[in-house]
User: Fold Response regulator receiver domain protein (CheY-like) from Novosphingobium aromaticivorans.
Amino acid sequence: MAPYDTIALFVSDPAVLASLQFALTVEGFEPIVEATEPGARAVVIDRGNLAEGLKLLDEMRGSGNQAAAFILATCPPPRLTATAAAMGATLIEKPLRGDELARALRTGLQTEKVA
Assistant:
């Protein structure tokens, strides 16, 4: 993994945001909040911030940006599952377990955790 893989977070719940920031930092990522920074290697969109996150993802895809994308949702309806697939995003069901998001990010970024 690069020294700091920048991950853009689109999360509206302050507690969830703080938790994700902490967990991703511990795992060696550099989380940034609601950033449109072109250097972000991945974007994580929480269902609570879905409309803005999907709009950004659509704009990214439209401009040729194929950064890894992840959508977090509890009991996602089939429509959200289809939307995620159509946009090339990985859907991850909440609650997250352990380092589930970090593992998905590493897979999506095709990187390995440095021991």
Q: What stands out?
A: Residues 111-115 have pLDDT under 50 and may be disordered. The radius of gyration is 13 Å. The chain has one domain: 5-108.
